[in-house]
Automatic annotation (TrEMBL):
Highest taxon, organism lineage: Bacteria
Organism, scientific name: Micromonospora lupini str. Lupac 08
UniProt protein name: Lipoprotein
Length: 571
């Protein structure tokens, strides 16, 4: 008697509930706007800011700095209905994530790179997932449990989102900034984080600890509320990570600390070594297989060589579903048991997504002698397991990691004062030339806009050295009507609302592969504290641009909210 049992490999899906609870404490979307037009220089109409207004300015400035972090170590604990989730994740500026999360006794290691999220867990986790699956052969479940526990497993983005997107600084900062915009500051106090004095800023149910003095940095967040990032929101943004110190276990809190150049190098070393060592054998849980026996199990008389033939069909369980294209690498293992012994055999094939193919393998069994003429029947059982390889190109991954290390490392070294290493250097003379351009263009505007608006011009360059261009901005998101016939000399207009210098910085945030070489405003840059219609002063925003030298204080200031600065450049 030949008996075949076909089992589809899909039990990983039952792990979604616990993973979702675990990841549900972490996820978020980003949003960022700067508003306000430049007001006339009227000192008498500018009241001193309230404590809440001052705290909002400090928090917004701290979030701007967080947004540009090259890499962070994110570590903390969160209460959820299933217990306490502990998180220890490092995230680079390029969105590479590596670390672990644990909840209800289960620990998941997490690796996110090249828009793919993989997890690794022990047998206990996968056994729990398998036991919750109502159908399936127990033998195959046990084998799958062992196989999954030995490998990184690629998972559907719907299971846990994309930690690399979710935990990047631009995403976290954008979520916190949007909460500040919607709720506003509800209370202000004083506190400490470690030995550092902090301003305690309450926004709804979330409490932020910010350094007491400029330049402002975010030190700690209590009761953060984070939601999953959508991959569609991904842009050219800089990195992420967080670190949490000792905490009251009854509170959810995060302490924020940037990775310095040495820590960032160590992070990339760890990820690259793991990729080289383990990713070649990673499996993919996003593919479901169904196997049916083709022609039974053939054991030619007297040979003991039994051939198992099966038709294997795959369907993609990931979000793209039936519309997906590409190929799947299928690994089939047949567990064959004869009357005297048991053997396994394997076959591997590449097949199109959402298609079927024939697979076969041969085992040698010890079969009894056939003492009669004709056909002899022996009990031979076959159980088949089919798993999809994650098919990670380790060489390509390694090359991309080295490119990411170069970009993030340059930013980390720049922030640490070790030199930015940008290919094109700016100068004070170049900044003065930009100021002359700004003044020339301002002179082409109507009298009121010329006197009360602002024009800023900046030369920008690509970080890889591929090219430069000039950006021009005013206090309005559209090019002034008076400039219809004005030759801008090939300058690109920055279409953002806010002070002109802030619009230049907004352009950079949306074009993160570029940096400021040199630039200037035609009027004095507003400074912290009392600038009207300015959520964060342009001076603070310029100070948060890595590697930027702020020009000398050489211009007369007629109001208390104007600095004596107009020029800036990267040396």
């Amino acid at each position: 008697m030949n008996r075949f049992t076909a089992v589809s490999r899909s039990f990983v899906a039952v792990g979604r509930a616990s993973i979702a609870v675990l990841l549900g404490v972490l996820l978020l979307l980003s949003a960022c706007t700067f508003g306000g037009d430049r007001e006339p220089d009227n000192e008498a109409t500018t009241p001193p800011p309230s404590p809440e207004e001052g705290a909002a300015v400090a928090l917004t400035s701290a979030l701007d700095r967080l947004e540009a972090s090259p890499g962070l170590h994110y570590k903390g604990a969160f209460d959820n209905p299933a217990g306490t989730a502990n998180v220890d994740l490092r995230v680079s500026g390029s969105g590479v994530t590596y670390g672990s999360m644990s909840d209800s006794g289960a620990t998941l290691r997490i690796l996110t790179l090249q828009d793919r999220t993989l997890i690794r867990a022990g047998e206990a986790f996968w056994k729990s997932a398998a036991s919750a699956q109502p159908a399936g052969d127990p033998k195959i479940k046990a084998e799958l449990t062992k196989r999954f526990a030995k490998s990184w497993v690629a998972i559907d983005a719907r299971v846990m989102g994309d930690p690399g997107l979710t935990l990047r600084p631009a995403n976290v900062a954008g979520q916190f900034r949007e909460q500040l915009r919607q709720t506003g500051v509800t209370a202000v106090g004083r506190g400490t984080v470690g030995e550092q004095q902090s301003t305690v800023v309450t926004v709804g149910s979330t409490i932020y600890h910010v350094t007491s003095n400029s330049p402002y940095r975010l030190l700690k967040v209590e009761h953060p509320r984070i939601r999953a990032a959508n991959r569609a929101t991904r842009g050219a943004v800089r990195g992420a990570a967080f670190r949490v110190a000792q905490r009251d276990p009854s509170d959810d809190s995060l302490d924020f600390g940037e990775m310095d150049p040495s820590a960032l190098d160590g992070f990339y070393d760890d990820v690259e070594n793991e990729a080289k060592r383990e990713l070649g054998k990673a499996v993919d849980s996003r593919v479901k297989f169904n196997a049916t026996l083709t022609g039974g199990i053939s054991c030619p008389f007297g040979s003991g060589a039994c051939t198992v033939r099966a038709t294997v069909a795959n369907t993609l369980t990931a979000a793209q579903g039936a519309g997906a294209t590409g190929t799947v690498r299928a690994d089939m293992t047949a567990f064959v048991t004869g009357p005297s012994n048991a053997k396994t055999c394997t076959d591997s094939k590449t097949m199109a997504v959402n298609s079927s193919t024939s697979m076969s393998c041969v085992v040698r069994l010890v079969l009894p002698r056939c003492n009669k003429r004709g056909v002899c029947t022996w009990p031979v059982n076959a159980n088949i397991m089919v798993i999809a390889r994650a098919d990670v190109n380790v060489t390509a991954v390694t090359k991309q990691l080295r490119r990411d290390r170069s970009v993030d490392g340059r930013l980390a070294r720049c922030r640490a004062g070790q030199g930015c290493g940008y290919p094109v250097k700016g100068s004070k003379a170049g900044a003065e030339a930009a100021r002359a351009d700004a003044e020339r263009l301002a002179g082409k505007r109507r009298q009121r806009q010329c006197q009360n608006g602002t024009v800023a011009v900046a030369k920008v360059a690509q970080k890889n050295g591929d090219g430069t261009k000039k950006i021009v901005a005013t206090e309005a998101p559209t090019r002034p009507d008076e400039w219809t016939d004005v030759d801008l000399g090939g300058m690109e207009y920055a279409e953002y609302t806010g002070h002109a210098e802030a619009s230049i910085i907004q352009w950079l945030k949306h074009n993160a592969n570029w940096y400021i070489v040199e630039g200037a405003a035609q009027r004095n840059v507003c400074q912290p504290g009392e600038a009207p219609n300015c959520d964060v002063s342009c001076m603070e925003q310029l100070e948060n641009v890595e590697g930027l030298t702020i020009g000398p204080a050489e211009f007369r200031s007629g109001t208390r909210y104007k600095s004596r600065i107009r020029t800036f450049w990267t040396e």
